[in-house]
Structures are given as C-alpha cells and as structure tokens.
Amino acid sequence: MFVNYIYDYTICKRLGMIDRAIKDKILEAAKNYPVVTLTGPRQSGKTTLLKSIFENYDYVNMEDPEVRKYATDDARGFLAQYQRGLIIDEAQRVPDIFSYIQVIVDEEKKEGRFILSGSQNFLLLKSISQSLAGRTSVLHLLPFTKRELDGRIPLSIDDLTSENLPENKSSIFESIHKGFYPRIHDKGLDSQDWLNNYFNTYIQRDVRTVMNVTDLDLFSDFVRLCAGRTGQLLNLTSLASDAGITQVTAKKWLSILETSFIIFTLRPYHKNFSKRIIKSPKLYFYDSGLLCYLLRIRSPEDLKISPYRGNIFEGYCISEFLKSMHHMNAYPDIHFWRDSTGNEVDLLIEKNGRIYPVEFKSGETFSSDFVKGIKNWNQLAKNPDNDSFVIYGGNRKMTYKGVNVIPCGML
Predict the structure, then answer these.
(1) Are 146 and 411 in contact (CB under 8 A)?
(2) Does 389 score more than 70 pLDDT?
(3) What does the domain layout of the chain look like in residue ranges?
(4) pTM greater than 0.90
C-alpha cells in the first residue's frame, strides 16, 4: 500500500490551500484500487490537490514534450524509473501507457500504485475502458463549491433544515459573478480577465485536441448561444439554426462541452403519475462566473438587473448540489419536472428512497408564490411537504405551509 500518511486540514493550511471535500474519497479509493483516476475541467485544482495528498509520490506531466516523447517511445522503460507511487498528469496524452500500467498493477497487486489525472474526460475514460476497467476508481474534481470556500461541511439536502445560516453573509451575487475556479480565489485575480483567458486558451485548445473544429470563432459563438439558453429546455434544432451549423455538429459540440465539464444537462423526471410531461433536457453551466463572462455580465450589479438573473441563480444552485455530489463520489440522481401545462419543479433529488423537490428563486424577499410549484407537485406525487425546499435570495430561514424556505447562503 503506497498511501502511508494522513491528509488533513493541517496540510491544507500549511500549503495555503482550501480544503477540498473530495480528498477523503481519493484516499479511500487509493486504499482499494491499484489505480485512482481524477478527472475534471482544466484549472479545477487536480494537480495541486493530488500533490498535496500524495506527497511521497513521484510526479510526471505528459504536457511536457520531452516526458511525453519518452513515455510514448519506451513506455516500459519510462515507468520502470518509478518504483514508488507515481502521479501521471494529463495521462490521456499517451494512450498506449495505459496497457503498460495494466501489466504492472496486475503483477504487483498493490493498491494506490498509480494516480492518473486528466482534463479531457472523453479521451481519458476511453483509454481507461480499454485497459484499466475494474482496476481504477474514477472521481471528478470540479471547481470549488461555496461551502469549500467557506470552510464548511459538504452540502446535503437532508441536512439543510438542521443547519444555521453561516456568518459569512457576503452578497451571493458577488460569489455567482466571480465564479469558483480555484486560481481566481488563490491569486485574488480579476475574474473576468482570467475567465477570458481561460475560455480562449483552455476550452478552445481542448476542442482542437478532442475534435477537429477548424472554425473556432464559430465554436465560440456556439458556446455563447448555449450560455443564452441556460436554464431552458434544450432545443437542438433551434440551437443549430441560430449557430449556422447542422444538428449533427451541434450535438457533437455539446458533447465536447459536457465532457470538458463546461456544461451539464438535467434530465426530466419520468414517472407515470402524469403522462403529459416534457421530455427535453435543460441546459446549465457548471461555473456561474464563466456563464456571466459568456453573457457579458461585467459586474455583480449588472447581474442583479440582468434578464438572465433567475436562470443564472437557478443554475448556480443546481451546480452546487451537483458539485457536492461528485466530490462525495455519489451518483447524482437529480432531475427536473415539467408538464405540458407549464407546472414545474426546478430540481428533484432522489436519495435513500425519498424524493426532495427543490425550487430556486433569486428574489431577496419571500413571496407565497415561491411554493406554488412544489405544492402542486407534492399533491400529484403524494410527497410530504416537509421533504420540500424553496431556496431563495434572501437571508431568512422559515417554514411556509410545511415547505422549508432556505436562504441561498446556506448552500
């Protein structure tokens, strides 16, 4: 077993790091699998986290041309240099090395032997499925959650009612606009400037690598069109038409964005208490700061008056749940519900045989209208009101007609 020390909050403080909720899951995986694979978007903090957890491991980065050439030309000799645990960053850049790793772990039978990371999820998981199936645990590190930045325990829907509003009551619109990529917070950078460079450098480079997109300006326009549809039902025909591309191309480009952890789609809930349900998914962005950049919302004040305010707030809240689930290595069993007459619930979370309906309202003053969608769904689904939540932009925690009303600061 190569993991022979404890990673804790003290190490994070010594390294000037913010504690990541996923760390214990990574250590647990390293005790049970010979290979641990950590994926996620570029600049989500994968390398920093892995180096801090596995301090006594060797480290190589396949982005380095000399390292990549050596590993490509002589994978067996390359790996033979490293007899202790090895972190391989951007491992998907040398696909053949996965077969050699398979041989080593099958012979040595030692847990935690290799730690792999990569930002191109599609290419990385393709290589894993071909050579390391059953030998690796795959985890996803996404940008910070608000709770990680505040030093709080991971988000769980069934714990919300027992918690108190945290002391840090900074404007939620400032947090949403700034976004949650680690480098912005670590270096105190201007978020809009950094996100501009991120979009132009990382996203477009990955697009060139994963798929031969020759017109990057057209692709950039496509991503901005997606941003304008955040929180809306995905209409592939309309999106493709507005972008001036075919539906086949639009579907491929959406796949690129999804596997790069830029966007995610939320599927509708399909249960037979109503047959007149919407079947199209809804489109969201993982990081609210990147979304604001793409929509050219330049300040928190602009966000407050933006016509996209409600959709951005909704996407931020759903992303907080989704990121927390990934960081706890829990399968994100989440959906939305809408019928053909317009009745809707923003989020349904299935957990331990229970369904928690959640509505998101960006308004800072509570209104009785906030609970209408949930009350309607609870009646149809015969769901108890006390398993229901409205998360809104205010700061007062209450119960209204049996529904839990939670300030967004508690997420």
Answers:
(1) yes
(2) yes
(3) 9-140, 146-410
(4) yes
Q: Which one, of 209, 300, 225, 218, lies nearest residue 263 by Cα?
A: 225
Q: CA 27: distance to chain centroid?
A: 20
Answer yes or no: CATH 3.40.50.300 is held by domain 9-140. Answer: yes
Vertex 136 angle, CA 351 and 29, to 5°: 60
Residue 15 φ then ψ, to 5°? -90, 0
| Alpha helices (runs of H) in 157-277, residue ranges in sequence order | 172-178, 182-187, 191-198, 204-210, 216-227, 236-243, 247-259
Q: Which residues contact 129 (CB under 8 A, 6 or more apart)?
A: none
Strands (E), 343-385: 344-351, 354-361
In terms of C-beta distances under 8 Å and separation of at least 24 residues, what long-range contacts does 124-127 make, across chains too? 124/37, 124/39, 124/91, 124/92, 125/39, 127/91, 127/92, 127/95, 127/98
- d(C-alpha 153, C-alpha 155), whole Å: 7
For residue 178, give both structure tokens: 């700034």
| Token pair listed for 187 | 């270096």
Averaged pLDDT for residues 208-226: 84
Report CA-CA distances (Å) from 321 to 147, 155, 314, 327, 389.
11, 7, 11, 10, 13
Give first-to-last CA distance, the chain, whole Å.
Answer: 37
Return the pLDDT at 272: 61
pLDDT in tens, 103-142: 999 999 999 999 999 887 767 777 787 889 889 999 999 9
- Round to whole Å and give the CA distance between 19 and 166: 17
Burial 18-43 (b: 16+ CB within 10 A, else e): bebbbbbbbbebbeebbbbbbbbbbb
Residues 342, 349, 330, CA angle at the centre, nearest 5°?
145
User: d(Cα 376, Cα 86) in Å, to the nearest integer?
Assistant: 54
